[in-house]
């Protein structure tokens, strides 16, 4: 019989661990703001430390470099709880159209909450080509997730869709660059973007509502 973990037996983080987590979060938030406002190249670890309210030695001790900070920020885009929850909810929808519509909401959430990090990434790679590998890995994971989602529509629901073509359509429509163009350049509201994306995904994958 499996052992049961009672609340009293679950290890709680120590005060030191809690403080370390808070410090790490403050550094990440400060770096995210400075990278976005000043650009990756112009942002120094000293500037990040100043905004975070910690010593620059602390930033070195926790992360070691700007590239390491950016890598952790990039991971936030890939593992975004709000968007991931919507994606899981989408997978339970009973029709292709409803799955794609819910999926559109997850994409809207991801870019609305973390699109600034994608822009920082694009800025950073222009001045530091060594970052390309990390960005490529994140893109590969995004593509893999989209492929699994589209194949799930066919496998679970027998939708009769062209899977490979649909993967390409979904990849293209959900690019952050499309969100940026429509919302930040053309001035669409995020609600309008989500409606357009949902309609475009349904039309592009299953051919209609």
Descriptive account of the structure:
This protein has 209 residues and is mainly α. It folds into two domains: 14-64, Arc Repressor Mutant, subunit A (Orthogonal Bundle); 75-205. The longest helix is centred in the middle third of the chain and has 32 residues, at 96-127. The chain is globular. It is built from ten helices and no strands.
Strand-helix topology:
Elements: H1 15-38, H2 45-52, H3 56-62, H4 66-78, H5 81-90, H6 96-127, H7 132-157, H8 163-173, H9 176-185, H10 190-205
Query: What class, by secondary structure content?
Result: mainly alpha
In percent terms, what proportion of residues is strand? under 5%
Q: Which sheet architecture does the biggest sheet show? A: none
User: From the alpha-carbon coordinates, what is the Rg to the nearest angstrom?
Assistant: 20 Å
* Number of distinct beta strands: 0
Give a brief description.
This protein has helices at residues 15-38, 45-52, 56-62, 66-78, 81-90, 96-127, 132-157, 163-173, 176-185, 190-205. By secondary structure, the protein is an all-alpha fold. It has two domains: 14-64, Arc Repressor Mutant, subunit A, CATH 1.10.10.60; 75-205.
Features:
209 residues; mainly alpha; Arc Repressor Mutant, subunit A
């Amino acid at each position: 019989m499996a052992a049961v973990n009672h609340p009293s037996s679950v290890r709680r983080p120590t005060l030191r661990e809690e403080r370390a987590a808070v410090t790490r979060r403050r550094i990440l938030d400060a770096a995210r703001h400075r990278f976005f406002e000043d650009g990756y190249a112009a942002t120094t670890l000293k500037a990040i430390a100043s905004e975070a309210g910690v010593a620059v030695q602390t930033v070195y001790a926790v992360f070691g470099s700007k590239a390491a900070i950016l890598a952790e920020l990039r991971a936030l885009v890939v593992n975004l709880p709000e968007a991931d929850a919507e994606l899981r909810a989408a997978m339970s929808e009973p029709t292709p159209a409803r799955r794609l519509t819910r999926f559109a909401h997850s994409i809207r959430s991801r870019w609305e909450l973390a699109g600034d990090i994608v822009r920082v990434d694009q800025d950073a790679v222009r001045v530091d080509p060594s970052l390309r590998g990390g960005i490529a890995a994140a893109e590969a994971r995004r593509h893999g997730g989209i492929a699994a989602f589209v194949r799930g529509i066919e496998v679970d629901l027998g939708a009769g869709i062209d899977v490979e073509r649909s993967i390409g359509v979904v990849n293209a429509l959900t690019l952050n660059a499309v969100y940026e163009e429509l919302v930040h350049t053309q001035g669409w509201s995020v609600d309008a973007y989500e409606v357009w994306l949902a309609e475009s995904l349904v039309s592009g994958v299953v051919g209609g509502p």
